[in-house]
Amino acid sequence: MLRVDYLSVPGLPTLSFEVPSGECLAVEGPTGSGKTRVLRAIADLDPADGYVLLDGVERREVSGPEWRRRIRFASAEPAWWAPTMREHLPHGVKVDRLLAALGLDKAVLDWPLAELSTGERQRLAFLRAIADEPRVLLLDEPTSALDATSVAVVEELIKFQLLADRTVLLVSHDPGQIARLAHARLLLAGSGRLHRAESAAA
Amino acid sequence: MNGAAVSYADLALAGALLLVNGIISVAFGLRLERSLAIAAVRMVVQLAAVGFALKFVFAQASPVWTALLAVAMVVFAGLELARHDGNRLRGWLVHGLGSGTLLLVGGAATLYALFVVVGPEPWHSPRYALPILGMVLGNVLTSVSLALQTLGDGVARERAAIDARLALGASRFAAFRGVLRRSLRTAATPLLNTMAVAGVVTLPDMMAGQLLAGADPAEAAKSQIMILFVVSAASALGALVAALGSVLLLTDRRHRLRLERLRALAREGA
Question: Tell me, what's the ipTM?
Answer without folding.
Answer: 0.91
